[in-house]
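Suppose a colleague, Dr. K., hands you the sequence of a protein chain of 148 amino acids and asks what its three-dimensional shape might be. Before reaching for any lab equipment, you can write down a predicted structure in token form. Begin with the sequence itself:
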Amino acid sequence: MYTKLAGFRLVVLANRFGDDTDFSRELHDCLIEGLEAAIARILVIMELERNLLVGDDEFIACQLQGETEIFGHFTINLLDDLEIDDDTHEYRINGGNWINALMADDGGVKVKFPTLVRLTDDELGSLASIIQEITLETDIPVHAVRAI
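The predicted structure, expressed as tokens, is then:
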């Protein structure tokens, strides 16, 4: 897994040099950052595995199990990440401040959350095929969505 992720990181780095727009460079940078985060998680898992081989430590085994489980839920978000709290009717985008989604007018009170819209292959450009390969080869989802 480490080798695959490192290889994809190099592919994205090389692909970035052909960019002609700030938006495309931003997408490449976000994908590189996400791949580096995945690589860092893999390195932690590898270190825990080495430590477990050296000595049979129950604490390390629990840590390894936890890290493996966390990595199983790993996702790379290229643009926007939307968190919604249905109980308080609030949302936040990209870990920012919480925003109240309640709206009131003459018709009454409504709850209006933003939605996530997937970027098109044209917007992704050359990254579209790379993202697809990353997901197929590593089972790590790459979300390229914009909150509107």
